[in-house]
Fold:
Amino acid sequence: MASRSYAAATIFRRRVISIAISSQKGGVGKTTVSINLAHAFARAGVRTLLVDADPQGSVGLSLTRQSRLLAGFYDYLTNPAGPFDRWIVPTSLPSLSLVTCGQAGDYEAGDGGMGTHLVRVRAFLRSVAACGFDLCLIDTAAGLFGITGDVITASDAIMIPQQAEPLGIRSVPKLLDGLHRLRIMNPRLSVLGVCLTMVQYNLTESTQAAAALRQLLPPAMVFQTQIPRDDLFVRASARGLPVGVLQDGSRAVVVFDALRAEIAAKLAPLQLSIAKSGPHPAAGDDQRMI
Ligand SMILES: Nc1ncnc2c1ncn2[C@@H]1O[C@H](COP(=O)(O)OP(=O)(O)O)[C@@H](O)[C@H]1O
Ligand SMILES: [Mg+2]
Structure:
């Protein structure tokens, strides 16, 4: 039964689903959400590619100390020639692969206005689809301009991590204005919503900020799942791992599985259902990403 539904999903799959993980502000949990969400989808058997489109290379740094030496996304933007699979780094979880940021060079200084790289980002996503991935999660730098703007414009969907703290919440309406502009360039862009991160349930200011965001936005625009502030995430990133592979990571696995299910439910009515492939290792099985 499982293999039949997988075959059907493969035959009818139109293309890879691409989701940009972006926000106006830095330090709100984009990279943490990207890594752990990619791991959650991959554990569920979705062939997932995690792309580090932040010139500062946080996904790569988080997952392997040598990632700065690997060619990656920004090298592709500079010169996409050659077989595409040379950009793809397998991990010890067969359904999860990475594209590191690579040598960002000039891009770190914000080289290139918005639109400059749109054609190449689109070509990149077509090649990802041709490689047979079901899902491409793209961790971006803060802001909605430059290459991040091009990534969002080329993507099917965007999700926005937002730290549950009072000052951060105030920037959300501005962010939505920015997204409105991007949707003019890509009317197909689906805004999956804002995901509250680093929620501190024992701190009134944090829970009040989360409640204030829910008052500010329509319910469908805020994920039900909230990512709690948890030292597990800091410990995992120090060891270069998603939390799901830590022996005591199960409480974070539950949260990211819930976020994965919410995303899948939001994508389904958009005819963007995610195909699933084979079995997956359990949390704790896998102590190394690369
Ligand atoms: N839920 C969380 N609980 C505790 N620390 C977190 C959590 N999410 C992120 N962090 C920490 O906060 C910092 C910023 O997170 P990061 O994911 O790098 O944000 P961004 O990619 O938006 O800049 C990192 O040190 C990370 O380990
Ligand atoms: Mg980051």
Remarks:
- The pocket of magnesium ion (ligand 2) is lined by residues 30-31, 54, 58, 139 (CB under 6 Å).
